[in-house]
Design a protein that fits this description.
The chain is α+β, with helices and mostly antiparallel strands and about 300 residues long. It is about 30% helix and about 20% strand. The protein is built from eight helices and 15 strands. A five-stranded antiparallel β-sheet has the order 7-8-11-14-15, with helices on one face. It has a three-stranded mixed β-sheet with strand order 1-9-10, with no helix packed on it. The radius of gyration is 19 Å and the shape is globular.
Length: about 300
């Protein structure tokens, strides 16, 4: 039984379990570091060692594009310079989906909150909350409409910065799933903090997932993301959650402990679950998820 756990932090702590193939003579279990955290890969495949090496290379490539914590990544260079010419496809693709969820969520999902995130994190490290003036100044440096995004370049207005913390884990899961499928693997489960399942368990049946409320969910050809408003907090009292409301610049009011959403892609499930944490009631969440084919609200606790 796989226990759902949502590991969200500025260090991008994640558990990665990218694959199990159909019965094959070679079995490999690798453990180490990937995506800035402990990681493991389990493969049953004649070319398990070679595939594992290629998976790790692909993860490293994605980090050079999407990581907020690599100074030389495409995202970091965009944030530093305010412009990125000829942006990589993956960054454009991820940001395009982010824009779609931004519109569907009434602006609640907004990767431009990075200046606010940095302010709250720096204030927490100094042992206090940011004051109202500092919050407002940071909030003025946000706004999805202030991004120019196309194949030629991505540009930000001065002082702006982006974070992919609400969608990037899911996006990486989707990309690695596609990579492993292209390698010929068929029964795959990937966990990057969000779950992405292709096929089922090698021994038969769907992938069993334990939800936050203890219920079980069978996962096959779908992704599942769980967000918790207070899953990570800025303060020791555990009251100021990590999901910030772009309208106020402050942590989301915790209307519930966690929200789980399943979707055809992990990136979509990830972004929708994050946005749902900022919504006042279940009806608003369902109105948002209803805008997308194949999306389901699985759990609201």
């Amino acid at each position: 039984m796989i226990s759902r756990r949502r590991l969200i932090a500025i260090s991008a702590a994640m558990a990665l379990l990218p694959a199990v193939a159909r019965a094959a003579p070679a079995r490999l279990h690798w453990a180490g570091q990937a995506l800035g955290a402990r990681a493991s890969i389990r493969l049953d495949h004649p070319d398990a060692a070679a595939i594992t090496a290629r998976v790790l290379s692909e993860i490293d490539r994605l980090e050079t594009i999407l990581s907020l914590y690599r100074r030389d990544s495409a995202l970091s260079r965009l944030n530093r310079d305010g412009r990125l010419d000829a942006p990589p496809f993956e960054l454009l693709d991820c940001l395009s989906l982010a824009g779609t969820v931004h519109r569907a969520s009434g602006g609640r999902f907004d990767p431009t909150v990075q200046p606010l995130w940095a302010l709250w994190a720096e204030s927490a490290a100094a042992g206090h909350k940011p004051d109202a003036e500092a919050i407002e100044q940071a909030r003025r440096r946000t706004g999805w409409a202030r991004i120019a995004l196309d194949e030629a370049a991505i540009t930000l207005e001065p002082g702006m910065a982006l974070t992919l913390n609400g969608i990037g884990q899911g996006y990486v899961a989707d990309r690695i799933a596609a990579f492993l499928e292209a390698e010929g693997l068929t029964d795959i489960l990937i966990d990057t903090g969000e779950l992405r399942a292709l096929g089922g368990r090698p021994e038969g049946g769907d992938w069993p997932v334990r939800m936050p409320d203890g219920e079980r969910l069978a996962l096959r050809q779908r992704a599942l993301a769980t967000s918790a408003p207070l899953g990570t907090t800025f303060d020791r009292a555990g009251q100021d959650g990590h999901i910030l409301d772009p309208a106020t610049g402050r942590p989301a009011a915790a209307a519930w402990r966690s929200i789980s959403i399943s979707a055809p892609s992990a990136a979509l499930a990830d972004a929708l679950a994050t946005a749902a944490c900022l919504m006042p009631d279940e009806g608003t969440v369902r109105a948002m998820t209803g805008r997308f084919d194949g999306v389901r609200l699985e759990d609201l606790a």
